[in-house]
Every structure is written in C-alpha cells, then in structure tokens.
Amino acid sequence: MCLLSVHLLFAQDMITISGQVTDAASGQPLIGAGVAVVGTTSGTQTDVNGNFTISAPADGTLTVDYLGYERQQIPINGQTTINVQLATSAQQLEQVVVVGYGTQRKRDVTGSIVSLREEEFEDKPVQNPLNAIQGKASGVVVTNSGVPGAAPAIRVRGVGSINGVAPLYVVDGIFTDNIDFVNPNDIASMEILKDASSLAMFGVQGANGVIIITTKRAQEGQTTVNVNSYAGFQKVTNKIDLANAAQFKMLYNEQLANLGEAPFDFSGYTADTDWQDEIFRTAFINNNSVSIRSGTARNQASFSMNYYNQEGVLKYDSYKRYTAHLRDEFTVNKNLKIGGDISLFRWDRNPASASITNALWASPVFSPFNEAGEYNASPPFQRTEVGNPVATTEINKGNTISNGYRFVGSVFAEVSFLKNFTWRPTLYADLGFNNERGYTPAYVVGDRAQYNDITGVRQSKATYTTGQMDQLLTYAKVFGKHDVTALVGYTSRYKGDDNVGGSRQGITIPIPDNPQFWYLGIGTPVTNERNSGGGSEETFISLLSRVNYSYDGKYLLNLSFRRDGTSKFGPNKRWGNFPSVGAGWVMSEESFLRDQEIVDFLKLKGSWGRMGNQSIGNYLFYPALNTGVTAVFGENVYPAAVPEYIANPDVHWEVIEGADAGIELVTLDNRLNLEANYYNRKSRDLLVRLPVPGAVGAALAIDNAGTILNTGFELSVTYNDEVGSDFGYSISANATTIHNEVLSLGNDIGYDIVSGPARTAVGHPIGAFYGYVQEGIFQTADEVAQSPQAGMAQPGDIRFKDVNDDGLFDDKDRTFIGSPTPDFNYGASVNLTYRNFALGIDVQGVAGNYIYNDRATATFGILNYPANRVNRWTGPGTSNVEPTLDNTRSNNFLTSTYFLEKGDYFRIRNLSLAYNLRGDILERVHVKGARIYINAQNIATFTKATGYSPEVGGSPISFGIDNGTYPVPATFTGGINLDF
Amino acid sequence: MISNLKASMKKIYKYSSIVLLGALAVNTACDDDFLEREPLGRFTTESYPAGGLTEYVYGMYSELRSWGVHNFAFVGITSITSDDADKGSTPSDAPDQLALDNFTVLPNNGLITDFYNATYTAINRCNIVLQQAELNKDNLSPEDYNLSQAEARFIRGYLYFNLVRTYGGVPLVDKVLEDQAEFNVPRSSQAQIYTFIEEDLKFADQYLPLTWGLEYAGRSTKGAAEGMLAKVYLYQKNWSGALAMANSVINSGMYDLNTPYDRIFTEAGENSSESIFEVQAVYNQTYQYGTQYAEVQGMRGPGNLNLGWGFNVPSQQLVDTYEESDPRKDATIIFGGETTPYGEVIPPNLDNPRYNQKVYTNPVNRAVANAQNGLWVNIRILRYADVVLMAAEAADELGQTDEALEKLEWVRARARAGNADILPEITETDQNALRNIIRHERRVELAMEHERFFDLVRWGIAAEVLHAAGKTNFMEGRNELMPIPQSEIDKSGGTLTQNPGY
C-alpha cells in the first residue's frame, strides 16, 4: 500500500531516461538486459544494440540486470542519459550458497559445502540430476545404476553407517529422499553439505550428507522463455567376455572328462549365439523442456514442463516422465511476502523382461529359434537351471505396466517485523500414487523345459503421503562491525504409506495377452485369489536454533543446536540432542595481508558437530508378528503365527560426530581457486541388523552396535583464464582420500558381521573381503603331497597360502584381502571456449578398491564360461592362475583372491561440444540466445574389472560384490537450447 | 573501543541466549503423542488377541515344511550318504550334494549350513510356544497348558534328534533367546543332548492324546512321542527302554500293518493306519502350502514326466540286496523302461537308470494341482513298520528271540501280501545271525527313507559297508558326523569348536 502512495506522490516528476548497457570488460553491448525502476512495476529490456529508454521519477533508482552479471542499482538524480557497464559475477566469493534454512555468502561459510551451478545440469543427458555430479565434487562418490528411472547411490565422505547411507535431498525447502520429480533443466544450483556443522541443522536425516537443490527464479524485470531439447542413443560399449560356441564345447567336454564322464554329443548344436547381443539393444533417449520465467519487482513466477523418454539398453526396458512445475513468489508489501510451489510428475515404467544373468549363463551352442520359428529349449545339461534368454525376454515383453503420479507442493509466507525479525512459516505436502498391473502368460518352450500352463494377473497400488510444517524465526542485524543472524525454528513431519495388492488366475478361461484384460476382475473367481495390504507411518519433531556471527568480516562463528524426536525409537530413547560449532578466520582481510597482490582471499576454517541417524524401518522396537504362515493337517489349512524378529525396545539414535578443518585460497587475480579440507567422521551406536548365530533360531530386528571412522583429505582446485578476447579456458580438479575403519563392534556382541565374502570386523574397513590367498596352481601330485593341502587337493587345484604358517590348511589361513571402498577418488574437468564454441571434457575415477566377482562362483549348474577359463589348467605348466575345469572341486570355490578384481577405474565421463549462435539471424526470429550442442557420456572406461561396470553398489555391509550388475551405457546425444 | 566491544559482545550473548532458550522452551510444549506410532495392519505379541497360543502351536508345524528342515539337505544327509542311494541328477549338478554322496564335505557346504539354521529356526518356534504357554498360564486350563507344552516338546525333541544325529553335540537352546549377551551358545555334549531329548519326549508322551481326529491328521500324538522315544533309546543301545516304548505303541492298538506296501507312499496312502508321524502338505488350486520333498527326488523325464530334479536315486547295491521276488523292490524303485502302476511308461535312457518310487505321484493329482513337481506329497517321518522292526531289533539284543521273530514276521507277512512262495518266514534263533537278518529287513523295508545312514553309523559298520559299496572316502572317526557350518564357527569367534577331521 505504501509503495503505491509513493508512486502517486512523485507522479508529476517523471522524466525519460535513455542509455546503453555494455559489458564492462569487453565493451560489447548486452542485449536483452533488464532495466527497471525500483519501487514500480515498470521495466524494459535493452535492444540489439544494448540501448534502452524508460520513464522514471527523477529521484528514483534504476536497476540493471543481466544473467551472469552483477546487478547494478543507479540513482537517477535527474539524469536523462545513463550508460551502464555491467561486470560479470564470476567472483565466486560473492556467490550466495544455500545452507540449512537460509543462505550465506560463500565467504562467510565455516563449513564444507560444494556448490554446483546450473551449467552442470543443463544439456547433460541424465535422467536424474545426481548422475551429473559424478566427479565434480570432492568427498562425494556417485555410483551410477544403468537402470532407467533409477537414482544413483550417493556417498558423502565414505560409508559412515551400516543401515541407510543415502543423503537427504532438499528441493526448494522440501525434504525428500527421491528427486526424480525435478527437471534437471530447472536447477539453478545444487549445494552439497558435507561437514558436521552444516549438517547439524538437519539433525534427523542429515547424518549422511545433505544435497540442497534450488530451482531457477525469475529475474526482476525479465521474462525469459527457454526451450531445451536433446535426443540421442545409448549403447553398451563393454560386454562381458565369455566363451564362444567352439570354446564352450571344448571346455564342457573337458569338464566331463575330468569327472570321468563321457563327452556330450553336440551334434544338433551348431549355433554360436552371443546371448548378450540378443538381450541388449541400442536405446533411444530424448528430453524436451520448456520453461517460462517472469519477474517484476513484486512478483516472480516460473513455470516449466518436461517430457523425458528413455529406452533401456536391456530389452524391453522403458521409462517415460512428464513433469510440470509452477512457482510464484509475491511481495504483498514491504513486510509480507507469500509464495507457493507445485510440481506435478507422472512416470511410466515398463521394466526389462530380459535377464542379464540368464544371458551370461546360457550356453552359446544353441540358437534362440529353431527352423520352425519356435523357441529352442536349452541343452539338457542346463535345461532346468537356465532357460532360453530370448524366450524369457520375448514371452515377458510388456507384461508389467507400472506408472505413478507425484504431487509436491509448498506454500510459505515471510513476515518481516520489528525491522530485524522475519518469521517464515512453511507447509509442504508430497503425495505419491503408484500403480502396477502385471500378467503371467501361458507358454511352452521346447518340450516343457520352461512352461507355464495357467495365466494370471496381478494388480497393486501404493500411496505415499508426506506432510511437513516449518516455523522459522530469524533475527538479522548489523551493528557496527558485528553481523549477527540468529534463527530459531520448529519442524514437524509426518510420513505414511499404504498399499494393496492382489493376484488371480485364469484357470478355466485363460486370460488373454492384452493389457485391457489385466485387472483382477477377469480371473476365475473363488480359487487362487491372493491379496495383501499394509501400511506404515513415521513422524518426527525438531527444535532448531542457530547463531551466525561475524566480526568485521574477518572472524566468523556459527553455533547451532538441534533437538530431535522420532517415532522410530521407543519412548525412553526417542529424543536426541545435536549441537555444532564452526569458526573461520578470513586472513586476507587482516591488515598484514590486505594490501598485497598475491593472495586475493585466504580463509581458515574449522568445525565440529554431532548428527543423528535413524534410517531404519518403522516399528522395530515393537515385537511384531508374522501371521502369514499356516499349518496343514490332512487337507485342512490352519492359520498360524510366528514372531517376525526379536524386537529391541532399546534401539536408539545412531550418532555421527564430525570434525573438519580447511583452508580456502583465491589467488592470481581471482583466477586460481583452491580449497583443501581435512575431515574426520566417527559414527557410533551404528544401527545394524546383525546376523546372529544360527542356534538363536530367529533374526534380530535391529541393534546399536559399533563405531566406524571415516577420515581423509579433500582437495579442489579451479583455474580459469582468458587468452585474448576470443579464447578462454578453465580447469578444475578434485580429489578425495578416504580411510575407512571399523573401530569397534559393540561390547556385548561376541561375533563378527559376515555377509558372503564381506566381513565387517574391528580394525578393517567396513565390508572388507575376507578369504584365502591364492599362490598359484598345483602342477603335479608331488607338489600337492608336499603342501599343507595334501590329501585335500589334486593337480589343477588352487594352491593357497598358508597364511599363519602352521603347516596346516584350515580356516585360519584366511585373511583380509581387499576393501570395496576406494582409497582415493578424483575428478577433473576442462572447459575451453573459443569465440562461440565451447568444449568440455569431464573425467573421473577411483583407486584402491576391489570388486568380488561373485558371478564366477555360481556352481549350481552348467553355465557358460567366462573367457578367462579358456586359459584353464590342463597339465603341468599350462597355467598358474586358472584352476582345472571341474565345478565339483569345492576348494576352488572358496572365498579367495582368485575371485577378487581390482576395482580401480578411469573414465572419460563426459565430452561436450557446444556452439552459441548470436547475431542478426536470431533477432529476426526474436530469439535471444541459441546453443547447439552434442554430448557423449561414459565414452570409455579403463579398468581391470570384468563386469559391465566397475561401479558395483550394494548394502553398507555388503557391497562391491558383482552379481551381474546392470550396465552403465555410453550415451550420445545432440540438442538445442533456445532462449526467447 | 574495548568497552564498545564488550557492550556489543554482551548484546550478542543476550540475543543468542534468548534465541537458544526460546528453542528449549518450545521443547516442553511439544506434543509427544504425535510421535507415538503403532504398527499398521499387523499384530504384535502384545496386541494379538488373547488365546493366541493355538496359532503359535500351528506356527511350529508350518516350519516343518520348510526347505531347510525337510527338503534338499534332509534328503542328502539321511539318504544320499548311505549305500542305498547316490546323488542322482547330472554329474555336475549340485556339488554340495556330491560332497555328501562322496564324503568330501567341507564346513562351508551350503546344505549342512541350511539344515543347521533351519532346524534351529523350527526349534525357536517350539520355544516360543513354551514361552507363551508360561505367560498365559493363568488363562489356560491345565489340560490346554500341558497339551501345548507337550506338542512343542515333542517336535523340539524330534528336531534335536535330527541335530544330534547329524552334527553330534550341538548348542542346547531350550528357551527363546532375547538378550544378545546370551546368543553365543557353546556346544553341549551328545550325552547331554540325548538326555534333553528324552526328557522332552517323555513329557510329550505323558500329555499327548492318542488321536486328534480326522481334521487334525498329522498332529503329534502319544504314539508319535513313544515311537520317537523308542528310536532315541535304540540309538543309545538302551534295548529295554526301546522295547518297552515300541511295545507301548504296538499295544495301543492305534496302528496296524494293514496298508499294502505299494500303497503306503501314494497320495491315497497319506495318513494311513500305518502313519505315526507325517509332515503334512497340501497343494492344489485352492491351497498352496506344499513342500519340495518330492520335487527334489522326482524323476527328470521328458514332457509330462518332468517331475522333479532327480536326486537321491537308488543304487545298484540296493537293487542287489533284495531277496528274490521281494515285491518291495518294485514298489521302492522306478526302473528305466518300466511301466508304472499308473500306466506311465518310463523311458530307458534318462539321466539315471533308477529313481525313488516312494515320491512318485499319481498323474491325476498332477492335473488337479496344475503342477508336475509333487509339492503335495507328505513326508513320512515315522511309520508303524519302523516301530515294529525297532521292537524286533531290541528284542533280539535282549535275547528275547521269540518276540523278535514274531515282530519280524509281521513285517514280512505284510510285504508278502498273501503270496506264500516268497519271503519265507525267518526261523533263525542265533542272536548274531538274527541281528543281521533284522538289519537286512530294516534296510529293505525302509529303503530310500531316512534311516539307512544313521543305522550304519549306530551299528558301527559304516566304514566297512560304505567302503564295500564304493564310497571309499568315508573316514572312520570323521564322517560319522557332518561338520559344524563354517559360518557358525566364524560368528561364534571360537566358542563353537569343529568336529574332528574337518
């Protein structure tokens, strides 16, 4: 109201101002820069020559904005010609980073935060924005999954928990653990919070790191329309090496001979099928995005829509996504601002019908179809264990239809009062609805080698509801050299879900292979109906407080305290307290450094904080029952009940304490940026589902047991420069070292955590591999007789090391043989710009980790041989690495270094070339900017691992174990990005 | 300037403390009810309606159908190990079973690990019943209280009997373990386990009914407890105890040998008058609570004869051991090339020349269930002929030759089925010779069931017989028992010790 009156007051003093807006460095005119009058809604844009004309009050103020440049505010003072030179805002220090519940200037941050700008996400062919940050942030390890629609696994500063290590995502203030509703094109910035003092503000879920995403806002006085579209294809570039038909025949017959059996008659099996080629395909990928952003002095609105389509490289996987996002912030008056945000998202997923392990196991000697066009059964020696992969793929094609909707919305108000206080209440809602319908067809392969006689349908639905309310009160004041911001707040969150599902069979009347019939009502009534349903809820409440203080811009202090309560723990253990403190010293502001030329900015910082983790299932302190079991007497069925697990009423917060120290340096005229950190994260009272001794006869729900340490160094360096006015370049690199060690496993636990080849034990990294050490292969019977394995092995078997040197070969000869956590991970980017061209290269890699090849340990049947088995031992001197072909020699399948592979890899992650169109052509079609680009992702990966990808995920106590992971394909796309 | 600084610092402290105190103040006003969330759609042991003891009892029985307790590992440990059977299937299938067949078992063998863990899970179910009975004691009538305990203790006794026969002395868990400090249980001795089993079975004997009626066919009965106790005594060479228990079963009049031999193991012969304890399964288009016992042994033929995985195949030694024209041979063994009683013609050139006929199913039932793999076949754990032969064996050991011969003749008479020309009545009175005859009768009567390997071990002739049958890896002093699973030894951090020789 008062602004309007101001306007009326000065109505008679309007003058016309004209001028030109140029780039301060080059003098080039800036086209489409926004010129607005402060306190009014009037604004205009500069024309193709950078000129503008505007009416304004003689004592008003003009603001001039342009993307990528620092805004300027110029008092008019009666001038009728005002020329403005804008400077680029490449100064990273003046950047504002988003921290928990607010923002801070980067220079004032005492914690460890990586900030990524929109360029990292635009134009990159990634379904999930998190895929784009691989190798870009020190301390962050991204493990991709090639599955369309799947999010990558993120680890911030090592694996610090046994149960739940995913970071928390905050999207425009909304807490979520799934960001697939975010259009990568909408992202203005992504902050990754790594250290304890930054994370402490997120207490409950922030223990594993927090990733804050801020979507693009409209600039004041500007309306921009953006269209971004790319299309391309994906391909699996490195298949797993397997034996071909001729090799298979030779190897299998040799294996039979080793068992004293007659060779197999391969007549009739003349094919040489590469099953991997049969199940993989070149997949199409396409993304289209439109966004409109418009801002005035009082209102900022943005709207975007997106359609994304990705076929998977594995037949017949497909994923489609439609998103729409609307956001508005309206300044009612100088004390009140309100806003709202809503995202709508729909996804469609048809999962792959092919099975990767099936294709790896199937023998190459038979072809998918016989001459009559029917499916061939697999050969008799693997008939019951391994089906025809093509049959499985085609029969199950399109048999699962799954889709879902998601609505994410928030409303907020910002009330300023008493000059320095701001109260911000916010309400969030996140609703998800998932549906799935599926069909089981009737089919026969061969002479009933694979068959199903009765058709069936299934349907399931799930609903997810999340609601959150925040109340924040902020006080900000600068008095003299003291700059204080204090924050007090209250958060409560509710998360619930429920699901229903059922299945029916078509016993008398078969259900047709047509999606219109795949609903439960179609099945034969009464017999064989199955249905199930359930629900779950969790809640938490937090009280938070924080004080940010800086003195003279030189000395920085941040304190925070948070108290959290959760429904997941019992009444006695519900609440936890999480304090933190951070301090910083901007040395470059000190008198002894201020006036020299070498150092532009130097800051020392350190922090300490405590966070809590409760990423476990709900209700685990309740003694739940499983009532889905039955007893049978005669032909009668009686429902039964058994306890689900041994409940633990004392389960409580897992606590992570982190300490951080670091240095930030900017030098060489702001061209070189360097940041180095030391981090030390200790997680104790780990929440873990311990594998208990078999004699207990039941599983333990969850327990707090043990301490893990993650410590190391992070380094990131960026250098950018220009050569002349045409050529510019920037190089950035980051590296992180991780030392992971289990410090203790709980006092009253008398046993180790063993999960397959991975063993979590004190003094070693979490999930380290534990087994025997291979020294070679026994060449002669004499050699066997003189070894500790005498009587237990034969020539051709693996010779193991007598680790404890006692002359005996037994389970004490096992030792820790490698860790799945890399010692070292790194990434680097080079960006070159020449006139209108821009070239970017991203590389990344890890070193020091191992992968356990579990695929090679399968002995349940006759499977196709990995290529390395062609080098098997056949007689003295033929091999000192590969044992003989005999899958009944159990000793050769013990957990040992024979199955261990180095997981080190170096990957050319992204290669992109872009051309910015400028000039008159564009003007005629009213286009402000256009960029054409081509992009190649995951072009080459250099590694010794034999799987599809050296990125092998898993659970915190059992990862790096390759059981046939989905390949991470190479992606080639081209696209165009237009600004109107 | 310093005083200004001090004043400013005071202001900062004032404001900071207001802010932080404010936060704490709000704490006391918050709503704890918001954080109370009970499980949705499921019961806890506290919210389960009163009288839930019956469902816990049924929970024990449901565990008996499980894969680890009575399917693949069980068949391997009790039958494939013996001279009656070989592994079956194709040569390189299931190396874990081949290790059992050839006595090259290593502690990391998957089958013995499964068996160990699954049996203890089932024991846990029994302990839960006992715990709940104790908790609900005031709400139960004395009959119900004793009855539930008796059922639990019978099944627990049987499960420990399986464990002690397989592994020797094992950890003795007689209650529900909830405190982690108690999880690492050391091994008890064989003698201690046997004493424990006897006490469980004696209690069960006291309180179990003679019968539950048709709608509870297969539920534990007094006869089952006594029959199992007879076997437990027999294994410990307590001949008088065994004879007394066996005679108690015989004299109860609840069982007889009227079922023809070739009918016992058909679907029609399930829960017959011979059946003392049988693990129940049902699998048809309405109910699918089956067990894979028949599937792992069913023959792997072409098309409609693809009945299973083909393990546990009868050996040539078994074929040769039958007396001339003993009809039990054809009822026990499916020969390649034969025509079965249901009229199916078995091809002669399958992976194995012989298959176990005691799991062979009626084609009619396969059509009804829409499955070929015999998931509905019950597992016969204890039958009357076994008890009668136990009586004969115990009687002979005690020198009561007449009684031994009488019991022996009952079994042979049933097998003879009225044909006077075969299986002549035994008249041998020399104790040692009669012992061998009874042992032979036991072998052919109970062939391909679950007795032979354990019988050889308890008679002390395992090494001799198995070496003669070609299983030369059997090492006396080692292979009478299976190794304790390596994963258990690892988890125990040394509290569990391994069996000798492994």
Largest interface: A-B, 102 and 111 residues
Report the portion of residues of chain A in β strands.
over 45%
Count of helical segments of chain B?
Answer: 21
Distance between the termini of chain B: 83 Å
Q: What level of helicity do the residues of chain B show?
A: 40-55%
- Number of E-type strands of chain A: 56
Overview of this structure, please?
The complex is a heterodimer of chains A (980) and B (502). Chain A is mostly beta strands and 980 residues long. Chain A is 6% helix and 49% strand. Chain A is built from 9 helices and 56 strands. Chain A is globular, with a radius of gyration of 32 Å. Chain A starts with a helix and ends with a strand. Chain B has 502 residues and is mainly alpha-helical. Chain B contains 21 helices and 8 strands. Chain B has helices at residues 2-29, 53-64, 67-70, 72-80, 95-102, 110-135, 142-167, 190-207, 222-235, 239-251, 261-264, 293-297, 316-321, 327-332, 363-369, 384-397, 401-416, 431-445, 452-459, 462-468, 486-492, and strands at residues 85-88, 275-279, 282-283, 288-289, 311-314, 333-335, 354-356, 379-383. At the A-B interface, strand 26, strand 27, strand 28, strand 29 and strand 32 of A face helix 1, helix 2, helix 5, helix 6 and strand 4 of B.
Task: Show the helix and strand layout.
The complex is a heterodimer of chains A (980) and B (502).
Chain A: H1 2-9, E1 14-23, E2 34-37, E3 43-45, E4 51-57, E5 61-65, E6 72-75, E7 84-86, E8 96-99, E9 102-105, E10 113-117, E11 140-143, E12 153-156, E13 168-171, E14 174-176, E15 187-193, H2 196-199, E16 210-215, E17 223-235, H3 245-258, H4 275-279, E18 283-295, E19 299-311, E20 318-333, E21 336-350, H5 356-361, H6 389-395, E22 400-417, E23 421-440, E24 443-445, E25 450-452, E26 455-479, E27 482-506, E28 530-551, E29 555-566, E30 575-586, H7 591-594, E31 599-613, E32 625-633, E33 636-643, E34 654-667, E35 672-684, E36 687-688, E37 703-704, E38 707-723, E39 727-737, E40 739-744, E41 753-755, E42 758-760, E43 768-771, E44 774-777, H8 781-785, E45 798-800, E46 815-818, E47 824-834, E48 837-847, E49 850-853, E50 900-902, E51 905-917, H9 920-924, E52 929-943, E53 954-955, E54 958-959, E55 961-962, E56 970-979
Parallel strand pairs in A: 1-7, 13-16, 49-55
Antiparallel strand pairs in A: 1-4, 2-3, 2-5, 5-6, 8-9, 10-15, 11-12, 13-14, 15-16, 17-18, 17-56, 18-19, 19-20, 20-21, 21-22, 22-23, 23-26, 24-25, 26-27, 27-28, 28-29, 29-30, 30-31, 31-34, 32-33, 34-35, 35-38, 36-37, 38-39, 38-40, 39-47, 41-42, 42-43, 43-46, 44-45, 47-48, 48-51, 49-50, 51-52, 52-56, ...
Chain B: H1 2-29, H2 53-64, H3 67-70, H4 72-80, E1 85-88, H5 95-102, H6 110-135, H7 142-167, H8 190-207, H9 222-235, H10 239-251, H11 261-264, E2 275-279, E3 282-283, E4 288-289, H12 293-297, E5 311-314, H13 316-321, H14 327-332, E6 333-335, E7 354-356, H15 363-369, E8 379-383, H16 384-397, H17 401-416, H18 431-445, H19 452-459, H20 462-468, H21 486-492
Antiparallel strand pairs in B: 1-5, 2-8, 3-4, 6-7
